[in-house]
Amino acid sequence: GIYSDFDTITLKSFEPIIKAKKNGFGYLYENFDSLGNGFILFTRDNHPFLKSVIDVFIKNYDGNDWGKNGPVLIIQLIREFCQVNSFIDIEFFGFKWSAFSSNHLHKCLDLTIFPEWYFYPLTYWRGEHIEVFKANSSLNPVLISKVENAYSLHYFNQLSSNFSAKVDDRSFFSFKASTNCEFTFNYVKKNGLYFS
Fold first, then answer.
1. 33-81 per-position pLDDT tens digit
2. Is 11 exposed, middle or buried (0-12, 13-18, 19+ CB in 10 A)?
3. Are the CB atoms for 47 and 18 separated by under 8 Å?
4. What pLDDT digit, counting tens, does each position of 144-168 carry?
């Protein structure tokens, strides 16, 4: 199955990843090497890693600690699953995690660490995630080049909630809504609402 946070925009079909029978998470560079849990894909039934994640999540859930329930949990269990002491000791195809190149697929056993550009082509710590809300951003060649090969785009709602896009402002957000989710786009347009 696929899990995707609500604050993502699907840009193209996940079918190629599904057909390749990939299981894993997106790499996310947040001023440090991390795994994002905003997009999770498992094509194998009863995957032991995913079962571990669910078991530990249920046992240790803390509603006041976002990181503990997300990236920290995933990284901790990757360490155990891949049998390494330190996250930076994990090797994928001979690369140390600390020297990880986010342009390639990397695997540990049958877990795949998808390149950052698959699901997180715009970073929040550089402020790139808010570009999708700006008027005429659907015409911005820099933005288009950063997302053109991505499967989805995480816009980090907690950090972008003060921004919105109008239906007719030619923002990247409204353009993708009009082409990828016509029902939502037409509802927002009909009711004079904003995308945020």
1. 567 788 889 998 888 888 998 999 899 898 888 777 787 788 788 778 7
2. middle
3. no
4. 898 889 999 888 887 778 888 888 8
Which residue type sits at 105?
A: L
3-state secondary structure 60-87: HCCCCCHHHHCHHHHHHHHHHHCCCCCH
SS (H, E, C) the chain: CEEECCCEEECCCCHHHHHCCCCEEEEEECCCEEEEEEEEECCCCCCHHHHHHHHHHHHHCCCCCHHHHCHHHHHHHHHHHCCCCCHHHCEECCEEHHHCCCCCCEEECCEEEECHHHHCCCCCCCCHHHHHHCCCHHHCHHHHHHHCCCCEEECCHHHHCCCCECCCCCCHHHHHHHHHCHHHHHHHHHCCCCEC
Q: How far apart are CA 57 and CA 53, in angstroms?
A: 6
Which residues are CB-contacts of 133 (< 8 A; sequence separation ≥ 6)? Answer: 155, 160, 163, 164, 165, 171, 172, 173, 195, 196
Amino acid, single-letter form, for residue 16: P
